[in-house]
Write a structure and sequence with these properties.
The protein contains 2 helices and 3 strands. It is of the alpha+beta class.
Length: about 130
């Protein structure tokens, strides 16, 4: 025999459970996006530092960024690395879509880094 009021408790739990599960997935997704931003920023900074070095190249910077991103294949399945290196400056932009527990939500994270190219400047040109 059921007591009075038990049906209301079950209905409340049935309505509340999907909301709680959705909130947990959103928190996990937010944590993954935060981590992906850190990974992308580190890849951009290291690639820029490599390409800025005297004797460095855009190909060297790209290789460094791709090596760092290779460990995050599950999180960032297809990141893109764009390097613009002139004789005086380097700009690196790394971006990718974050894969997470919510199948229809794939936010894009982007980070840029850059600076001057290290080079010898004669005293007369300073």
């Amino acid at each position: 025999m059921r007591g009075r009021g038990t049906a209301g408790e079950v209905t409340g739990a049935v309505l509340l459970l999907p909301v709680v599960v959705t909130m947990v997935f959103l928190v996990i997704q937010a944590a993954l996006v935060y981590h992906a931003r850190s990974v992308v920023a580190a890849a951009a900074e290291d690639a820029a530092r490599t390409a800025q070095a005297e004797g460095g190249s855009a190909a060297g910077g790209r290789a460094v960024a791709e090596e760092l991103l290779r460990g995050s294949d599950g999180l960032l399945p297809a990141p893109s690395v764009q390097i613009d290196r002139t004789s005086t400056a380097v700009t690196v932009t790394v971006s990718g879509q974050v894969r997470g527990p919510i199948p229809w939500l794939h936010p894009t994270v982007t980070a840029s880094a850059g600076g001057p190219v290290e080079r010898f400047v004669p005293e007369s040109e300073r």
